[in-house]
């Protein structure tokens, strides 16, 4: 059994600039747009494991998001450089990933969040009660995290 | 003091058809788009109280969303008619609204969610520790809900 | 050969309310969002012909948009009721549809536009040089429009 | 009078990765999302001239898009690295910018487009018949392009 990956391997970070089209009339990012920022960081994390959305499909599984939580601490503004970090938290029965958005310059915490995904068999559209073996292979983890 | 409004006054419901541009490659609504559906129902609710986004601004307050939670039960598909209900839950210190999306034909529960907003003084951009009097006037409620 | 359908059959109109999440920092609809409004009207038009996106796929064809033009006359604002009309202009080699957005109350012209789509074989992903027979059947038109 | 800037100064190029949330059920970028990609390149171009959206507002002018044209040559797919180039074409009476999206690896041409913007006085909301002096200062151009 491979050992639990070091914490730095279970985390990915992207840096992005807040675009104009994500702003609302108050000149701050509209709250629904943060799900996009989380997703870009999540895809960077999944790519590290060779299990991004295209590879999920090839493996015969879809991984729909079944839960989203966003906690807005400070608003994001136009042209702000922000860092979005995604960290893997759970994988055995479902894929839980935590997010932290910080100001790239000051490091100030701006947003926290979490998504939960479950495996769905792409052919039958049935939900998996446990994450499929392919996830553990990609994570180089045993189902018990060892 | 005016009495607590009847439950039917604290709730609004809109019916909408799922548009093509909200779908993802799996042919279901991309999870980040639900925040838009919640907002349309929230605006219908706020309009009932004569306190929609334009009236908020006139009153001198912004009401940014500080927390969003979405629980995806069943996926929404193209052209599906869905009902989105928004129900006021808290108002004294913050505005908490619950959402329920159901299939308009069968009534099947598809999505649940909650948003929390707080008042921010539009001039000073300072957060209000308690909801401003204008909210209670519009809700026809005393701060203690009576 | 069936006759050219009357002009009212080749046109569909939807009425919608401008949502908050489509606004930009100037308090008007961000220009890229109009493609969504056109699409909702286009889907209403295609539904009249029993050839909406789900039926396109069943018929073995995708119809990607290959050209989009939008002419912004007056800005759309929050909560404005607007009418979006889609009118079929060409079908023999490609599907060209014109759009007109007007204020639902005053009838003032707000936006004009056009999309052009071509048929693509869903299996081979090859572009069709001429619209496939299924389109003419649904339009109840001969390829020469008679 | 300052001379016409060299062509390389009138052009900006950004490189981006196609995100999952911009895809449609056919697994390609939904056509309305290209306006976002154009905007990111346009903002890079305007930043070169110290006249991005925040500086526009400080200068007392809004620059709404009054015309958008997109010509889709080949579809953009998930995770594709694309280059988006924005090139200034007209400035005297209106700001016309051309766009070219290419595959970052192969250089294949994927999308072409153009936006046209006009200056609007932010205070009076009146459209300017000619671009205001601030634009020429920032472009280091005389109104006749010399």
CATH fold call of chain A: Thiol Ester Dehydrase, Chain A
CATH class of chain A: Alpha Beta
Order of helices and strands of chain A: EHHEEEEEEH
Could you report the average pLDDT of chain A, rounded to the nearest whole number? 92
Output the structural class of chain A. alpha+beta
Number of domains of chain A: 1
| Major interchain interface with per-chain residue totals | A-B, 22 and 22 residues
Oligomer: homotetramer
In angstroms, what is the radius of gyration of chain A? 16 Å
Which sequence of strands runs across the widest sheet of chain A?
1-4-5-6-3
Helix segment tally of chain A = 3
The biggest sheet of chain A, with number of strands, parallel, antiparallel or mixed sense and barrel status, is: 5 strands, antiparallel
Kindly estimate the percentage of residues of chain A that lie in beta strands according to DSSP. 25-35%
Distance between the termini of chain A: 6 Å
Question: Helices and strands in order, then pairings?
Answer:
4 copies of one chain form a homotetramer.
Chain A: E1 11-17, H1 34-48, H2 53-58, E2 61-62, E3 65-72, E4 81-90, E5 95-103, E6 109-117, E7 120-121, H3 133-139
Antiparallel strand pairs in A: 1-4, 2-7, 3-6, 4-5, 5-6
Give a written overview of the molecule.
- The structure is a homotetramer of 146-residue chains.
- Chain A starts with 10 loop residues before the first strand and ends in a 7-residue tail after the last helix.
- The first copy, chain A, has a single domain (7-139), classed as Thiol Ester Dehydrase, Chain A (Roll).
- Chain A is 19% helix and 32% strand.
- In chain A, the strands form 2 sheets. A 5-stranded antiparallel sheet of chain A has the order 1-4-5-6-3, covered by helices on one side. The first copy, chain A, has a two-stranded antiparallel ribbon with strand order 2-7.
- With 146 residues, chain A is α+β, with helices and mostly antiparallel strands.
- β3 (65-72) of chain C pairs antiparallel with β3 (65-72) of chain D.
